[in-house]
Amino acid sequence: MYKSDQRRDSNISRRGFLRLGLGAATSSLLSNSPPLLAHSGESDEQSSGGFGSVIRGVATNARRICLTMDDLWSEYYTLQICREFHRRDIRLTLFPIGHAVNNNLVRPTAGHKNLYPRLRDMGHEFGCHLYTHRVIKDFSLEQLIHEEMEPALRVMRQALGADFTPVGIRPPYGHVTDAVKELSRQYHTPLILWGLDSQDAICTHRKDVHNCDCPESTEKAANSQMVSQAAQAEVCDKDRCAKACIEEILHSYETYLRPGSIILHHALKATLLAAPAIADLLDDWNMQAIPLTELLAYSSAAGA
Ligand SMILES: [Zn+2]
User: Fold this and answer.
1) Taking a C-beta distance cutoff of 8 angstroms, is the pair 145, 183 a contact?
2) N or C end: fewer C-beta atoms under 10 angstroms in the chain?
């Protein structure tokens, strides 16, 4: 019984949860839940720990989880989201695309100079999402190293210092191949996917395309390097598209969150708007969000 069945079986809204006073009973509900590692749907692989193995979460009873955020194309949303979670004592693990890091180095948008050291100063940590975000399914190990990993490391070290090492490798789209596993082994860096997709990107895309009268061109402009903060505030009148996603994001948490979860987010408006409610939900469920390196330490065989 995986995603679709679980969704049907979980019709209790968060408000309903709280109204019924079930917040404190969440631990017993969680302990009866399906195994953490069974719900990604990206692959059948199970991690046995070690480099080259796929880690989607940590098997632990500790009420600790890890929020991750990918891509970071929008400096504006990246900074705002990281600040919002920082205010709530939540440290993220960020997987920027190397190209986005380079953009910040060579032409940062107003107010976003030195973005990456500033994020690190808030306590957030960094993994590697490769350089170009291409589909890498057919890439050889050599291609991965020379066209993706090394360029990404080069700009991340420019941004974060020569001694920077990523806490994990997250291949774009979660595509894990033999070459990607070998990359993980050669760089002694774990392969980090996710066990809980917040659905922020999927929802944003679907609302933009089918369900929302936000002009798509303005929404895209919010992710552009060229738009000023003032203009971004005007984007998408009353945030209609993103607000429509918040309930879906929270529903993903309510349905799939477990101790040891690794959660996928993106630097999008929907995540920024959902951040306070996510922090509230984690508080209600007594789940502490910690960086990946700390979460992995909760399992002697991380991801097993
Ligand atoms: Zn990505």
Assistant:
1) yes
2) N
Q: Give 198 Cα–ligand 1 centroid separation in angstroms.
A: 13
Q: Does pTM top 0.85 for this prediction? A: no
- Expressed in angstroms and rounded, the spacing between residue 152 Cα and the centre of ligand 1 is 13
| Pair of tokens at residue 276 | 């306070």
Identity of residue 104: N
pLDDT of residue 205: 76
141-193, pLDDT tens digit by residue? Answer: 999 999 999 999 999 999 999 999 999 999 999 999 999 999 999 999 999 99
How much distance in Å is there from the Cα of 159 to the middle of ligand 1? 19
Q: Are 272 and 81 in contact (CB under 8 A)?
A: yes
Q: What string of H, E and C letters represents the secondary structure of the chain?
A: CCHHHHHHHCCCCHHHHHHCCCHHHHHHHHHCCCCHHHCCCCCCCCCCCCCCCEECECCCCCCEEEEEEEECCCHHHHHHHHHHHHHCCCCCEEEECHHHHHHHHHCCCCCCCCHHHHHHHCCCEECECCCCCCCCCCCCHHHHHHHHHHHHHHHHHHHHCCCCCCCCECCHHHCCCHHHHHHHHHCCCCEECCCEECCHHHHHHHHHHHHCCCCHHHHHHHCCCCCCHHHHHHCCHHHHHHHHHHHHHHHHHHHHCCCCEEEEEECCHHHHHHHHHHHHHHHHCCCEECCHHHHHCCCCCCCC
**Phi, psi angles (nearest 5°) of residue 62:** -65, 140
Q: Find out if CATH 3.40.50.720 is the number for domain 47-296.
A: no
Backbone angles phi, psi at 244, to 5 degrees: -65, -20
Distance 149 CA to ligand 1 centre (A): 14
Domain boundaries, the chain: 47-296
For residue 162, what are the contacts with CB-CB under 8 A and spacing of at least 6?
Answer: none
